[in-house]
Structures are given as structure tokens and as C-alpha cells.
Amino acid sequence: MNRPPEKFQRVPAEQLRAYAAACLKAAGMLEDHADQLAQLLTNSELRGVRSHGIRTIGGYCPTLKSGRCNPRPELKVIRETDTHVYIDGDGGLGYAPTMLATEKAIAKAKVKGVAVGAACHLGHYGSAGHYVHRAMEEGCFAFSVQGAFPQYYGSNKDKRAATYGNPPLCFGIPGDQGPPLVLDGATCILADYQRGPEFEAIEAQIPAAFFKSMGYTGIATALGGVFVGQGQEEAKAVTERWHGARMGSFVWVMDMGLFAPAAQVRAGVDALISHVRDEMIPLPGYSEATLPGTMEWRKTQEYLREGIPMALEDLERLQKTGEELGVTAPWA
Question: What is the torsional sign of CA 236, 238, 241, 246?
Fold first, then answer.
């Protein structure tokens, strides 16, 4: 899904951002939340994370208009200390409340060294990388995860243990001169669309890999779901009102200089990445070995310069979404 599309049209990032914001506002979303979400989705496109980019407004806009999520939530701080903050998302999408928790955790981590933030009563919060990248912009190391309670199986309709769940999570630590080290993905070793007999045959060949992904899924689901309050009666009441808001989110932020000097840590990240690129034998079919984060960093530079390569079918769907909301696509 996140490979560059074969048939595409390059669209300037600002055009995509403005279009997404206009559609979200037309669907009833609060203006500042719409502007923030449009920028985050554009950031995903710039990193090449198409699965969580602008195309998602085709799902978010109907979700908001139909009332599955609250288009105009009132975010509230439930509890706050000098090292943690807990946000009530009021049934809205997970972006704004989780970013609020992230911003507060960043400020606290800069003073105390470590801070955590969490939000409850949320819908989808997109790529976990949004919140980690924001912390890295401030020179911090971060982790984020989203979970649901009761559990959310996604595309695992047959409830196979090997594809138990796939919650998003991300770890990220910035480098100095080069790209950051960013593990932005989900817990299952297979993507949601990799289903069927040919994939089920892999289970018997490498069961240990599936055992690991089941463990990662369990921990991520608990940490991003029940740990942040989604098992409470109040959370059930919110979900009854806003059926798409059954998730929570968690973010953990650490100051880069918590142990060793920050400059030394960042230089060490550069050295890690360079060692893999210069010394490791690439996987079959690939021209180089890289650590996660490098390709996204390169794509961002290219796409800002040349425009984002949008799949033609995605542009058609986006244009249809706009037509339904009375918003004209600038590339049409």
C-alpha cells in the first residue's frame, strides 16, 4: 500500500492540505481541528505513508456527518501533574486530543526529563507517527500507541490467532545530520489486506513470528485501550453515543539528554544508520540496506520539491468526496 503508486499525478502539498481542510470543515469538523488534521494527513503523504494520508478523508467525512464520531468535541483535561496529562476526547476523532496530550507531554519532558500523555473516548488517531514526529521536532525521543476496548479485530473477521489484531504504534529518535530512526507501523507481521490461504500457509512455517506479533498486539491493545480508561463505564456510554469512538491513545516522551548528552545521542543515531547503509548486505530485491525512517525522510525532501505522487484512483475518490460536500478539487 505504501509503495509509490504506478499511475499518479503530482500534486503540491499545499493544495492537498487546503482541500482536505475544506472537506473536513464542510463535514462539520471544528475549524482548528480540521486545519490540524489536514496538515497531519499531508505530512503522512510527504513521508510516503499513503495508507494514512489525504485519502482517509473519504472515510472521515462520512464518519463525522453521520455522527459516528463527534465533529465538534469539547476536549477536557481530566487529570494533570508535572509528569503526566490525561485528556477526554469527547467522542471525536483521536488526532486533536492526542496531539494536545503530546504537546503537554513534550513541555513536561523538557523540564522533568520524562512525561506521558493519554487520551480516552476517541475515534481513529491515524498513524502513530504523527505524535512521535512532533516530539522529535522538539528534540525528544517518543513512543505512541492506540488501542481499543473491547478489542478491535479490524479485518480479522475469522478471528485467526495469527492475525489477532493490528494496533498502530511508533518509536522515534532523531539523528543529527541525517534521518531519524523511526519505527512507524503496526503490531501484526502481515498487513490487513494480506489474508487468504497463501498467507495462512506461512503460519506453519514461521509460527514464532506470529507468536511475537500476538504478544505485541496484546500489549499495544492494553496500553492504548484499557490502561487509558477505555474499560470504564463512562467510556461505554461515550461509545453508545458516538459509535466510532471506542479507542484511547498513549504517548511517552523523553528528553534526548536524559542520560547521555543530547548531541552525543543524536550523533550516535547517525552512526547507527550509516553503519547499516554502508556495511549491511541488502535484502533480496533491494539495492541498499536502511533502517526505518530513512525512506520517509528522503521522500519528504523529494515530495516537497516536486509534489506528492497521488494515485489516480485516490484523486478520483477524493474528488467525489469533495463533490458530495460542495468542495472543488484544485487538480480537477
Answer: negative
Domain positions in the chain are 1-66+294-332, 73-291
Number of helices (H), then strands (E), in the chain: 11, 9
Outline where DSSP puts E strands in the chain: 8-11, 76-80, 84-88, 114-122, 140-148, 168-173, 181-186, 247-255, 308-311
Instruction: Report the top-level CATH class of 73-291.
Output: alpha beta
State how far the Cα of 218 lies from the Cα of 214, in Å rounded to an integer: 6
Rounded CA separation 296/306 (Å): 15
| Chain segment 20-58, per-residue pLDDT in tens | 999 999 999 999 999 999 999 999 999 999 999 999 999
In which band, very low, low, confident or very high, does the pLDDT at 17 lie, cut at 50, 70 and 90? Answer: very high
| CATH classification code of 1-66+294-332 | 1.10.1530.10
pLDDT, mean over the chain: 95
The one-letter amino acid code at 20 reads A
Domains 1-66+294-332 and 73-291 share a fold: no
Using CA atoms, how far apart are residues 140 and 265, in angstroms rounded to an integer? 11
**pLDDT, tens digit, for every residue of 223-234?**
999 999 999 999
